[in-house]
Amino acid sequence: MLHQEIAADIIFEGMSLGADFCDIFVDKVSLQHLSLNSSKIKDIKSGVDFGIGVRLIFGEQMVYGYTNSTKKEDLIQLTRLIAQKNGKKTSFDQAVQFKTKNFHQVAALADKEIPLSEKIQKLHTLDKKVRAHSELISQVNIGLMLKKQEVEIFDSHGLHVQDTRPYVRLATSAIAKDGNLQESGYWAPGARGGYDYIESLDFDWISNYCAKQALTTLRAVPCPAGKMPVVIDNGFGGVIFHEACGHSLETTAVQKKASVFWDRKGDMIANEAVSAVDDGTMDNYWGSISVDDEGMETQRTQLIKNGKLENFLCDRMGEIKTGHPRTGSARRESYKYAPASRMRNTFIEPGQYKKEELIQAMGDGIFAAAMGGGSVNPGTGEFNFAVQEGYLVKDGKIKEPVKGATLIGTGEEILKNISMVGDNFELAAGVCGSVSGGVPTTVGQAAIKVDEILVGGNA
Question: Helix or strand or coil: residue 246?
Answer without folding.
Answer: helix
